[in-house]
Design goal:
Blueprint (H helix, E strand, L loop, with lengths): L5 H14 L4 E7 L4 E4 L1 H6 L11 H6 L6 H14 L3 E8 L5 E12 L5 E10 L2 H35 L3 H15 L3 H13 L10 H10 L11
Antiparallel strand pairs: 1-2, 1-5, 3-4, 4-5
């Protein structure tokens, strides 16, 4: 097992933070120096702004929930003695008094001579309220992605039929949305469905067929979805 550089740890932390800003963070603990390092995310889990606290074993234990304190204190004593990997699920109390349910996963931290000098790993906040917030955020992002896909599909059809650029197609969609007072996503969905339903019968449909569908698409959007 190789010892990771600080640059590597920051890259890992940044990658994790991109997906979950305060839910996952990195830590390192050096046995001989009794020294801790917390990523920005772990500091925030404990209620601190990044860079405002220097973690110590005393501070780490001070944040443990009273009912979990002894378990974690014993675990720390054990890993200092055995220098083995560990994992734990427990609760911490941040500086504001909020309780967080935490999963901590640690692996051996080795130096260049492959000697075990500490432990490193992740804190994962699995608090039900935090999970619910993340699930809500994920659902909103999924909705946004779906809406974007529908708009892109309608743009593509307009680009082909009217031989226009992507920018012009989007401006046309936005203009029709504003003029008809309907949501852009609903209009794009209706235009895509209308254009796809045009029957070719072996012949290229007249341009006026698409013109009419474009100008009247808002009329076929269900009333409950109109603004």
């Amino acid at each position: 097992m190789q010892r990771h550089s600080p640059e590597h740890d920051r890259e890992v932390g940044d990658a994790l933070a991109a997906g979950a800003p305060q839910r996952v963070g990195c830590f390192r603990y050096f046995f001989d120096d009794d020294r801790w390092e917390w990523s920005d995310q772990v500091q925030r889990m404990h209620g601190y702004e990044p860079g405002t606290v220097k973690p110590t074993t005393r501070l780490v234990l001070a944040h443990k929930h009273p009912d979990d304190y002894r378990q974690i204190a014993d675990t720390l004593a054990l890993i200092r003695q055995t220098r083995q990997a560990f994992s734990s699920r427990h609760r911490i109390c941040d500086v504001h008094g909020n309780v967080h349910h935490i999963v901590v996963v640690g692996e051996e931290l080795r130096d260049d001579q492959a000697r075990v000098i500490g432990t490193q790993g992740f804190y994962i906040d699995v608090t039900p309220a935090e999970l619910a917030r993340q699930d809500h955020l994920a659902a909103e992002l999924a909705t946004i992605a779906e809406a974007r896909a529908e708009i892109e599909q309608a743009k593509g059809m307009l680009m082909v039929i009217y031989r226009m650029s992507a920018e012009a197609a989007f401006e046309l969609l936005r203009w029709r949305s504003q003029q008809a007072n309907v949501k852009l996503r609903d209009l794009a969905r209706q235009i895509t469905a209308d254009f796809a339903d045009v029957h070719h019968d072996g012949q290229i449909p007249l341009q006026m067929t698409y013109d009419h569908l474009l100008m009247t698409a808002h009329q076929r959007i269900p009333a409950e979805r109109r603004q």
